[in-house]
Write a structure and sequence with these properties.
The chain is an alpha+beta fold. The chain has seven helices and eleven strands.
Length: 260
Amino acid sequence: MADVEVKYETKTATTVRGMEARSIEKAKQDGWEFVSQTELPLLRTQLSFRRVKPKVNWTPFLILGGVIVVLASIITVMSIVTGGDDGAASVPAAPTATAQAGAEAEVKSEPAADVFVYEGPAYELITAEDPISEGGLRQYWVLTDKLDYSNPSFKEQVKLIITDVTRAAKTTDIIVQVVTDAEIIEAESYSTFESYSATHDADHMKNVLFPKQATDWVAWYAGGYDYDEVALTGADDTYTLDWLPVGYEGHEKWKPLAEG
């Protein structure tokens, strides 16, 4: 008897560097076998998994198909015996002038929507990138002026920036990276990190880029992505904001109000 070919289904998941073990263990609990991992920019790692495809039992589908055929036959016979409904379909009455006037008055009486006015610090949206990770979240890179980290209000200023970006994007399910030095964007953006790496040596990375990342990469907002489930779930606790400057690191669950 010939050996039965084993077929696999595969999937990839992206996680933050340092959280690979937890993501792999979670996948194993769901029956996935770890295959490989690939380092991505922005301190991410892409994990590859596989598991044996379950065999499809066709018997229930064949039974269901037979039942449908029998029911269709019965319905056809009943239609022939009873005949069609000769009654004309009733036509809904046209709205009266009074009803129309009332509806127009109701529309006119609705209060005007509040106009959102941005009152945060000046910023520049450098690039918006198509997703390659985090469940397909689009990523926005924002450049703003230097911030005074010793003043706790800097976090509220950054939140105003992120909220404004989500309003413009018309969704909170995005990634927003806030920096105060443009070189970080060049080094970490999906579209430019390869060319940046090819034109800057290790000494530059160590002496220039890494110190900038430690002080000028301000915040990382991710909306709706669960790094434990390695999936875009949209659960309330998956809207997070990470504070990145050395000495001011932090993590909080936070979702901007994008309506308006």
